[in-house]
Amino acid sequence: MNFEFDSLYLVNPCKFDDECYARAMHAQKIIDNAKIFSSFDEAVKNLDYLVATSSIESQREKRHLRNAVLLEDFADKIYDVEGKIGLVFGREDYGLFNDEIAQCDIMVKIPTSESYSSLNLSHAVCLVLYVLYVKRKSNIKEKRCLGKVEKDKLYEFFSTLLEEIDYPKHKKQNTKIMFRRIMGRAMPSKWEYHTLMGVLNKTLEKTKKNNKK
Question: Which DSSP symbol is given to 95?
Answer without folding.
Answer: B
